[in-house]
Amino acid sequence: MKYKALYGTHDILPDDSFRWQHLEDQVRKVFSLYNYREIRVPIFEETELFARGIGQDTDIVQKEMYTFVDQGKRSITLRPEGTAGVVRAYLEHSLGEKSPLVKLFYLGSMFRQERPQKGRLREFHQFGIEAIGSADPSLDAEVIELAVRICDELKVDDFKLHLNSIGCPKCRSMHRDEFLNFMKNKLSSLCDDCKTRYLRNPLRMFDCKNEECIEQLKQAPVMVDFLCQNCQMHYAQVKKYLKELNIEYLEDKRLVRGLDYYTKTAFEIKSDILGGQNTLLGGGRYDLLVEELGGKNTPAIGFAAGMERFMLVLKMQKSLKCDEKKLNLFVATLGEEAKSFALKLIRDLRRKNVTCETDYLQRSLKAQMREANRQKAEKVLIIGEEEMKKGKAILRDMRSGEQTAIRLTEVGRVWA
After folding, report:
1. The domain that contains 63 carries what CATH number?
2. How far apart are CA 142 and CA 392, in angstroms?
3. What angle do CA 258, 260, 264 make, to 5 degrees?
4. Residues ≥6 apart with Cβ < 8 Å to 183
5. Are residues 248 and 380 in the same domain?
6. Are residues 275 and 390 in the same domain?
7. Do 358 and 290 belong together in one domain?
8. pTM assigned to the model
9. What is the distance between the alpha carbons of residues 395 and 398, in angstroms, rounded to a whole number?
């Protein structure tokens, strides 16, 4: 039987993994500049955490979660997103008592049982941030500026920031009445999902990708026109700060997020190079989530980004400029005495942070040279029986082809 990776998953092979490491390194560097600290939460949680946190009526909870009963008869779910687990950890470990504003970031795998699409598989990878403890709109601006900074650092071309406010429960109730009244005679033209959303969570109808639904919603009342005074002031301040930071944005009145915990500020960064599935990053405020999960009334904001989508857009625009880690030295040996010497030599060189390799397959010198060339070694040290007797070796520069004799006792000093 020949085993294969499950549908909707993929292997990140060594020829690609260094590119992922580069992406992760760039992201970590930016997060550190903004004083965000890493948190690593479990890959699975109690199902109830996601049902309460994300929203019982969302597509994620209704259709997409990987849920199972473990041997302890508990309902367990592989994390479909990062925020609920981070907030659970924030509450469980009383992080808010240690600091009034907690700034966290994460990287890792997420899981959703949905139809695999360009840049989004059933196991996918995200990086994200959570800033918990402040309702100040200047924090919204910082979070958005951070997201833009990441796109700049990664050299993403022609991305666009979309911005909206989706209000709070007070203004949503006013919008809901107007919206339901407008849509009631259009229900027959909507997809089955939107018919369900009409009854349970009408605002999320704006998130539908069905062309007929999009057409029917074009003239529908939008949330931003029903904002209460507090939400209006907050949104105005966010836009003011973004202007002061010289961050361009597109006001997108139909922008909503796919999770129920969002309030007030909502934003996405999109790249048209990806076509229909063009969202690289999305987030916003979730001022009600901490309380919903059992904590005090605590405002918060964050975002999450799909790493596969970033990798895809960077490859498509050929701007993923990073070098694979280089092999400094390949030690080619002939004979047992030379091999014994080489093992001790490469141990000592590695302790000096020199990347070394040698042959473990008893290949000929010619085959070892081919292997050194395949691994793109900068230099090759050739040690044979004659060289051992003379206490010397041949050092070959693989770029120029130049060879020089070198004393075995002097090898370490080349990389000193």
Report:
1. 3.30.930.10
2. 60
3. 95
4. 190, 198, 202, 205, 216, 217, 220
5. no
6. no
7. no
8. 0.89
9. 9
Q: Identify the top-confidence range among 133-142, 204-213, 313-322.
A: 133-142
380 and 287 in a common domain: no
Tokens of 20: 């992922």
Residue 379, both tokens: 């230099």
Q: What is the CATH number of the domain that holds 345?
A: 3.40.50.800
381 exposure class (CB count in 10 Å sphere: 0-12, 13-18, 19+): buried
- Contact in structure between 212 and 113 (CB atoms under 8 Å): no
Last residue in a domain, options 291, 316, 341: 316
Same domain, 307 and 333: no
CA–CA dist 307, 224 (Å, integer): 30
Instruction: For the sheet with 250-251, list strands across it.
Output: 37-38, 102-111, 123-132, 300-306, 279-285, 263-271, 159-165, 250-251
The DSSP secondary structure of 245-271, one letter per residue, reads: TT---EE-TT---SSTT-EEEEEEEEE
Instruction: Classify 97 in phi/psi space as left (phi over 0), alpha (psi -120 to 50) or beta.
Output: alpha
Q: Output 256 or 79, whichever has higher pLDDT.
A: 79
- Could you tell me which of 357, 395, 317, 396 has the C-alpha nearest to residue 151? 317
Domain count, the chain: 2
- Cβ(106)–Cβ(83) below 8 Å: no
Does residue 134 belong to any structural domain of this protein?
Answer: yes
Nearest to 313 by CA among 23, 114, 87: 23
Mean pLDDT, to the nearest integer, of 294-311? 95
179 within domain boundaries: no
Please report the pLDDT score of residue 12 as a whole number: 92
- Does residue 212 form part of some domain? no
Cα gap 251→164, rounded to integer Å? 6
Q: Is 254 found in the same domain as 164?
A: yes
pLDDT confidence tier of residue 304, bands split at 50, 70 and 90: very high
**pLDDT tens digits for 162-205?**
999 999 988 888 888 888 888 778 777 888 888 878 777 777 78
Give a yes or no: residue 219 inside a domain: no
pLDDT at 217: 79
Which of 283, 316, 349 is at the close of a domain?
A: 316
Residue 111: CA count within 13 A, CB half-sphere: 15
> pLDDT tens-digit profile of 316-375?
887 777 677 789 999 999 999 999 999 999 999 999 999 999 999 999 999 999 999 999
Q: Which domain does 353 fall in, by range? A: 327-414
